[in-house]
């Protein structure tokens, strides 16, 4: 049995731990619980088929991430009694312009044969949109895909960790420092404990460069601050409402009991600032009120702030760190962490036990982090 130490208990690390533990491997998960962890703050939209991004490498990974949920969620729900935070209610891409709705329809239909999980694709008139999401203003139409889903990052992460622990994984809270040894093993120091393992998987996101001791491994990761606001619509049952992808920046994710998550801001050069700001809240509400004025009467619940890690070209990467066999990492998921993270964690688990990943090892190589 090989010992795998996973440093970073966000969505990637939780998924890697779960899949390794399910294989009967010895797994230790180390996380120091930094304030502002992306997974902890996040609510995700699983609907890459309607994205405005045109990068094919990103889309292939995001498409596979969306497909992977169809395997993962039934497995988690069958094997353990936890709420995964995942629900497939569909997604509406909202617009007030005819040519954009036509482009979105054509885009979704073109992608459907290669991504059957997209489900039904249909045009929604103004009346149709308001029937499915009553808060939207007049003048908006949309494209609906039934396969779109929402996910609560905290709940999904906790469900994966719960599954890993149920299969023998051990959790440790604390700061880890990794030192490569000369015997194809790694030393990981956590407080007064010294741990040793054949494989180490580093999934520490924006905090990754604080972990390595001795051999310096500086990864080119760009942290980005994101603020999300949580509102409540009293007396409304929003559990079955679809996710809204609006014309501009800020998405709307409905949850149960009238709770709505709206965001997220994209604030560069803020390092690890976790403060909720008046400017961030204003920017979100100012835009949302233009297409959904029904939110003006909502109760303000909270603001969550997370730090998302971006690679230099905004494409996620994962694999073995060059010249250090047994040391693996994944990073740079940016705003698509909950779409791609569970799948990437599973791919890292495969690599760590010598199984072939779905994608070529060079396609999303971590070498780009060290250029």
TrEMBL record:
Enzyme class: oxidoreductase
Domain FAD dependent oxidoreductase: 5-351
Cofactor(s) needed: FAD
Annotated EC: 1.4.99.6
GO cellular component, one term: cytoplasm
Entry-linked InterPro entries: FAD-dep_OxRdtase, FAD/NAD-bd_sf
PANTHER family given in the database record: D-AMINO ACID DEHYDROGENASE (PTHR13847:SF286), SARCOSINE DEHYDROGENASE-RELATED (PTHR13847)
Sequence similarity: Belongs to the DadA oxidoreductase family.
Protein name according to UniProt: D-amino acid dehydrogenase small subunit
UniProt source species: Salisediminibacterium beveridgei
Lineage: Bacteria, Bacillati, Bacillota, Bacilli, Bacillales
């Amino acid at each position: 049995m090989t010992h795998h130490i996973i440093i970073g208990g966000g969505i990637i690390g939780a998924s890697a731990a779960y899949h390794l533990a399910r294989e009967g491997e010895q797994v230790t998960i180390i996380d120091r619980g930094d304030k502002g962890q992306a997974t902890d703050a996040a609510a995700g939209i699983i609907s890459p088929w309607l994205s405005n991004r045109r990068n094919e490498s990103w889309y292939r990974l995001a498409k596979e991430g969306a497909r992977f949920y169809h395997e993962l969620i039934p497995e988690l729900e069958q094997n353990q009694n936890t709420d995964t935070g995942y629900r497939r209610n569909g997604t509406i891409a909202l617009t007030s312009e005819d040519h954009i709705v036509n482009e979105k329809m054509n885009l979704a239909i073109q992608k459907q044969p290669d991504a059957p999980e997209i489900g039904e694709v249909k045009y929604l008139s103004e009346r149709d949109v308001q029937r499915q999401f009553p808060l939207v203003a007049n003048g908006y139409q949309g494209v609906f895909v039934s396969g779109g889903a929402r996910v609560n990052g905290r709940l999904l992460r906790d469900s994966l960790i719960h599954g890993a622990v149920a299969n023998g994984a051990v959790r440790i809270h604390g700061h880890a420092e990794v030192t490569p040894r000369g015997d194809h093993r790694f030393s990981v120091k956590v407080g007064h404990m010294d741990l040793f393992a054949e494989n180490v998987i580093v999934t520490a996101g924006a905090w990754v460069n604080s972990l390595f001791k001795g051999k310096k491994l500086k990864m080119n990761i760009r942290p980005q601050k994101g603020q999300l606001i949580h509102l409540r619509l009293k007396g409304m049952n929003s559990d079955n409402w679809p996710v809204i992808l609006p014309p501009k920046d800020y998405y709307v994710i409905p949850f149960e009991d009238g709770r709505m998550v709206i965001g997220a801001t994209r604030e560069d050069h803020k390092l690890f600032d976790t403060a909720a700001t008046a400017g961030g809240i204003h920017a979100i509400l100012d835009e949302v009120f233009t297409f959904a004025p029904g939110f003006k009467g909502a109760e303000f619940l909270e603001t969550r702030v997370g730090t998302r890690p971006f690679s230099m070209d905004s494409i996620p990467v994962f694999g073995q760190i060059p010249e250090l066999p047994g040391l693996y990492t994944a990073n740079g998921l940016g705003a698509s962490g909950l779409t791609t993270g569970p799948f990437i964690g599973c791919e890292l688990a495969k690599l760590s036990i010598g199984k072939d990943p779905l994608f070529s090892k060079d396609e999303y190589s971590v070498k780009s982090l060290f250029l």
